[in-house]
Amino acid sequence: MGNQTGSEIEYLARALKAPRIRDSATRLADQAREASWSHEEYLAAVLSREVSAREASGAEIRIRAAGFPARKSIEDFSFDHQPSLRRDTIAHLATGAFLAEAKNVVLLGPPGTGKTHLAIGLGIKAAHAGHRVLFATAVDWVARLQTAHQQGRLALELVKLRRYGLIVVDEVGYIPFEQDAANLFFQLVSSRYEHASLILTSNLAFARWGDVFGDQIVAAAMIDRIVHHADVLTLKGASYRLQYTGIESLPSVRAQNAAQ
Ligand SMILES: Nc1ncnc2c1ncn2[C@@H]1O[C@H](COP(=O)(O)OP(=O)(O)O)[C@@H](O)[C@H]1O
Ligand SMILES: [Mg+2]
């Protein structure tokens, strides 16, 4: 490539806000000459590099903005440890098809069975598929909604949150809520109903959510909307965290088993 053409490409790439094109144009031009690509093939190759790079950096930005507590991937999830869970169910969820239909995912099971891991893994997949994602614990969501409510901008906040294709609510049930919190949470669930997806995780079966929310009727109305279009997956077994510790079960697991 001539010097002048090179600097023209550099200028044009910068004007297009695609400075990476400068490098890929030179690199791919050598490859094109060697392999006798047509002009169209060369142009397609340069553009497709730019598009992939943009998609990857967009996904990375969405992953960072999501507020995941850790990076966990579906690929790192061991299905051998969770035999009741079907690989193809998770593989299908990982395609992100549920997001287009505004469907929900509920992950139930005792502590340490991989609920948060799967929620993060699916959230990362959603970010790669182009969806904006927000992750927080149920307690943090309620605090956020309470603040918005106190400032008189709850409706606005709910509209803003609807622009996120996926919201993850982790750890429903660890800490019981006040009744006004239950109402706020109900509003979050109904504002997303049939518009945008939720992933919820909980150590408690639905039957016990009424106690968590301090209101059986609000809890029932909420669960009704959540599960109307949802995959409910129940994880089982001993905590993955405890597998090499020799500890066989946690108090909450025993209490829950006894309650069933
Ligand atoms: N089946 C699994 N395969 C790989 N890692 C797992 C699996 N289940 C749990 N873990 C890991 O064990 C730890 C606890 O899992 P986590 O998802 O936080 O459990 P939960 O949210 O159900 O309490 C995490 O570090 C997670 O990555
Ligand atoms: Mg968890």
From TrEMBL:
InterPro entries: AAA+_ATPase, DNAC/IstB-like, IstB, IstB_ATP-bd, P-loop_NTPase. Belongs to the IS21/IS1162 putative ATP-binding protein family. SMART domains: AAA. CDD domains: AAA (cd00009). The keyword RNA-binding does not apply. GO terms for molecular function: ATP binding. Keywords: ATP-binding, Nucleotide-binding. It comes from the Bacteria. Residues 101-233 form the AAA+ ATPase domain. GO terms for biological process: DNA replication. Pfam families: IstB_IS21. This is DNA replication protein.
